[in-house]
């Protein structure tokens, strides 16, 4: 198989990124490991593609597969994002710590005693909200799904509208997977010195172009901090240009978290390569694929004996009545 190197870097433009995608596909791969569905989307117009299966890692890629690409992908796609391994471990455990790492590196500022608004209380947003609160922040949640909003309230978070959140928060972080979670019309309500950041896959969750339009000045004050002065004289700070904060300003997820996701993708690809029997549709994991090793690298053993126990009727042993 020909080797193709296409290394993405933090300073890449969108054109660079599309160039990398084209170079990877020019090597005529059989299997794709995707994150955001750009590779998968680029194969759709091609009639001569050799691709037999793909994996998709993230929620935003999943939205594209179910939206603009629905019914147009001729090969099976393992949507790793929907597997418990991804949702429980990367999103619910990894995100919070990784994003806080990005926030601290970008701002060198305290988390404790600040009010953070987390916009979106999905698997990533709740991880972030919980981590911020554990570090002493007061956390507001903005969530448009009523059940998820209620979940946040039951966890003791203050749940409110975006209009109210911008008035209250020292820092607002979007993690919705949807564009325009924070729009330019809200800028005038922000507190002086408010910090804005995004964790969602695409840098469209904060309307950065809109902020540039309503701002009277803009300057880079640190590597990942852009200062905007607004017409009302208030200053707001945008972190990492509205790109994913944990990746743009820090190192992304912890290595063990990435190991889990990549192992899942490798298992999926192996299932396809060995048996070829994946269904031609979206699925969260290859059938029969489950953690097999009794003791993974984390050192935690999985109890196999319990799996073999067949639940049967309970026996109650009556105490024999005393004789004599
Ligand atoms: N930075 C990273 O390393 C990383 C890792 C995993 C996922 N992601 C990305 O994070 C984003 C969120 O992922 P997720 O799995 O938590 O998604 P999710 O769909 O589980 O949760 C998103 C939540 O946001 C809510 N929402 C959507 N638009 C909203 C709005 N305008 N206002 C308020 N709430 C809104 C939805 O109702 C939903 O509950 C996606 O873009 C995903 O690709 C990033």
Residue share in helices? Answer: 25-40%
On the 0 to 100 scale, the average pLDDT is: 87
SS field, number of helical segments: 11
Order of helices and strands: HEHEHEHEHEHEHEEHEEEHHEH
Radius of gyration: 24 Å
Overall 3D geometry?
globular
Main sheet characteristics: 8 strands, mixed
Number of strands: 12
Structural class: alpha/beta
Give the N-terminus to C-terminus distance in angstroms.
86 Å
Strand order of the largest sheet: 6-5-4-7-8-11-10-9
Question: How does this structure look, described?
Answer:
The protein is an alpha/beta fold and 324 residues long. The protein has 11 helices and 12 strands. Strands 6-5-4-7-8-11-10-9 form an 8-stranded mixed sheet, sandwiched between helices. Strands 1-2-3-12 form a 4-stranded parallel sheet, with helices on both faces. Helix 2 (38-43) links the parallel strand 1 and strand 2. Residues 310-314 have low confidence and may be disordered. Nicotinamide-adenine-dinucleotide (NAD) binds next to helix 3, helix 4, helix 5 and helix 9. Nicotinamide-adenine-dinucleotide binds next to helix 3, helix 4, helix 5 and helix 9.
Short description:
The protein has 324 residues and is α/β, with parallel strands linked by helices. 35% of the residues lie in helices and 16% in strands. The longest helix is centred in the first third of the chain and has 24 residues, at 84-107.
């Amino acid at each position: 198989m020909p080797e193709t190197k296409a290394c993405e870097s933090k300073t890449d433009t969108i054109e660079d990124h599309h160039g990398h995608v084209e170079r990877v596909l020019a090597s005529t791969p059989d299997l794709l490991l995707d994150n955001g569905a750009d590779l998968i989307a680029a194969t759709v117009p091609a009639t001569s593609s050799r691709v037999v299966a793909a994996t998709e890692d993230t929620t935003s890629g999943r939205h594209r597969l179910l939206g603009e690409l629905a019914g147009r992908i001729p090969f099976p796609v393992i949507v790793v994002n929907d597997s418990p391994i991804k949702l429980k471990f990367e999103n619910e455990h990894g995100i919070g710590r990784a994003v806080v790492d990005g926030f601290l590196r970008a701002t060198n500022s305290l988390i404790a005693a600040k009010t953070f608004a987390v916009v979106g209380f999905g698997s990533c947003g709740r991880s972030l909200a919980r981590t911020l609160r554990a570090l002493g922040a007061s956390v507001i949640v903005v969530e448009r799904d009523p059940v998820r909003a209620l979940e946040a309230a039951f966890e003791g978070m203050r749940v409110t509208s975006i209009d109210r959140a911008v008035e209250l928060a020292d820092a607002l972080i979007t993690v919705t997977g949807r564009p325009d979670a924070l729009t330019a019309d809200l800028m005038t309500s922000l507190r002086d010195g408010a910090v804005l950041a995004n964790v969602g896959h695409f840098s469209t969750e904060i309307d950065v172009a809109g902020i540039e339009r309503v701002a009277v000045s803009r300057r880079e004050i640190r590597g990942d901090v852009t200062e905007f002065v607004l017409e009302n004289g208030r200053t707001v700070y945008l972190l990492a240009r509205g790109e994913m904060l944990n990746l743009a300003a820090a190192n992304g997820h912890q290595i063990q978290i990435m190991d889990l996701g990549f192992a899942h993708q490798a298992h999926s690809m192996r299932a396809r390569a060995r048996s070829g029997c994946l269904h031609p549709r979206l699925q969260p994991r290859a059938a029969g694929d489950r953690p097999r090793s009794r003791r993974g690298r984390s050192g935690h053993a999985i109890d196999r004996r319990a799996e073999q126990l067949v639940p049967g009727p309970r026996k109650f042993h009556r105490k024999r009545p005393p004789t004599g």
